[in-house]
Amino acid sequence: MKTSIATVTLSGELPEKLEAIARAGFDGVEIFENDFLAFDGSPADVGRMVRDLGMQITLFQPFRDFEGMPEPLRSRTFDRAERKFDVMQELGTDLVLVCSNVSPAALGGIDRAVADFHELGERAAKRGLRVGYEALAWGRYINDHRDAWEIVRRANHPNVGLILDSFHSLSRKIEVDSIRSIPKDKIFIVQLADAPLIDMDLLYWSRHFRNMPGEGDLPVTAFTEAVASTGYDGYFSLEIFNDQFRGGSTRAVAADGHRSLIYLADQVRAKTQTLIGAAMPKRAVVTGVGFVEFATDEDEAGDLIALLKTLGFRLAAKHRSKKVSLFQQGEIKILVNVEPTGFANAAYAVHGTFAYALALVVDDAAAAYQRALALDAEPFSQPVAEGELELPAIRGVGGGVIYLIDDKSALGRFSDIDFEPVTDSDDNGDAGLLHVDHVAQTVAFDEMLTWLLFYTSIFEAAKTPMVDIIDPGGVVRSQVVESDNGALRITMNGAENRRTLAGHFIAEKFGSGIQHLAFATDDIFATARSLRAQGFRSLHISPNYYDDIEARFGLDPDLTDRLRAENILYDRDDGGEYFQLYSGTYGEGFFFEVVERRGYRGYGAPNAIFRIAALKKQMRPDGVPKDAG
Ligand SMILES: O=C(O)c1ccc(O)c(O)c1
Ligand SMILES: [Mg+2]
Hints:
The protein contains 21 helices and 26 strands. By secondary structure, the protein is an alpha/beta fold. The chain folds into three domains: 2-272, TIM Barrel (Alpha-Beta Barrel), CATH 3.20.20.150; 286-421, 2,3-Dihydroxybiphenyl 1,2-Dioxygenase, domain 1 (Roll); 435-618, 2,3-Dihydroxybiphenyl 1,2-Dioxygenase, domain 1 (Roll). Strand 6 (160-165), helix 7 (166-171) and strand 7 form a beta-alpha-beta unit. It is elongated. The site of magnesium ion (MG) has 4 residues, from loops. A divalent metal cation binds at residues 134, 165, 191, 239.
């Protein structure tokens, strides 16, 4: 796939945008007129910059309100076109994007538009240039690619072709199969954008809410499949108008864009066997969380270990060469790393005690690693002692690490190979915790789409709809990435301000990361009893909450009493019931959760507001928990 992106997608000044686009790996760039007009250099300077970065200018855009104008506007429009042609020749690009007319002065009529395009084609041909016509979803007369194609077909000029833009076609739910019969040579370029499904004015939706393919809800893959079926082998160019991207990190958004195209090509190839992208292993199937690793130091490890103990974990093994202890309960493995050097220590120095790494058990770790790299993931490695395993790893959220292990290679036995079993002299028995139910990551709001795309492109997982959670200090947006088998469940909370618990965590931790871990039990009341016996202090939940759920769900008062006595939160969905129990916060807002699912699929979103209020009440203004046990 030949990749391109419109400069309008990114924040910053033109040189910064171009540098980020090249660095992300794009082959081409659409120069958006305003970016060029705001730049001090000449068109030739821009052309040189692009080519020096190893890219092509795929097109110059947009040329507006062209077709169907009455005189004298019509003549002026052609004069304007000639001036754009001058700029294009200086830039060194042969294609201009003409978007369908939105002017109140425009006259309709296919014949008139056909005649205008034929003449524009003649003028372009004299200079060796080409004209591409795109139907804007809100065009005055032409707002459907089928009509734009009819005009291009009848203009019947080799220098006039069609520009398809997935947003305009999909936002109007135009049948994508109508693309299949268009001759590939008449498709001059294909623009791609996704968008979240929001019911609003098309123009406003398009100019503010587009996002990268795979980040939204539109069937961009089906659209691209239809394009690929024509044999089209030109550029696929991202054109994303998005307020968040315009204010975001230029490099990060460009990198997301490149990843989105690689992933899209992979999906299209998998479905149609069309060779539009490089072959890569399938999305990795996650079968479990292998371990979660905390970075801390000798002094601070004590409190963390004490908390793990009250949760029923026992010290099971010690690393053979590093200062890393392995705590276990059921299938859950927690590593506590107090190495005075190395990556974990550096992470600790920046973030404080921190769950910096996560190991995912996948069907094939080597393949998953290869796929992640093909999708531009950043590899991670650090020296290991002789005889120890080198776990394949990539950088994850907030600069954390994701290790990839599997059961088919020695990687699955990492805890036997790299660790020495020990007997815990202070083992009080477990609390019935079985496995990691979900990992909750707090991220800056403008990174949410980044990580959504990261997880869903590498792993066999899908997103669920975004939910708003009301924190007393503001709104937190919550989005889940989960696999069908339930083995991968990641909740991402995006904080827009630092007065929220999530925002506080990010500010104090100097970045995004794992904010809580939820462990599964199959008997929440038994677990609550053993936790209490081991000195665990559950998060106190307001009695008002229990009166409300009793009425809301029609609970048996006995059950409500038991829930209240143990500070257990309750929810129910079509699948069944959900029980949640929380620890207080540890450090700058990290906490543990214990859940029991009785067929329930969700994450207790309706309870989040009460949980957040309780956690905040428990934290002193300096952020140190009052009675976290
Ligand atoms: O919003 C617009 O005006 C606009 C301009 C050019 C495009 O290619 C497009 O898709 C939208
Ligand atoms: Mg477009």
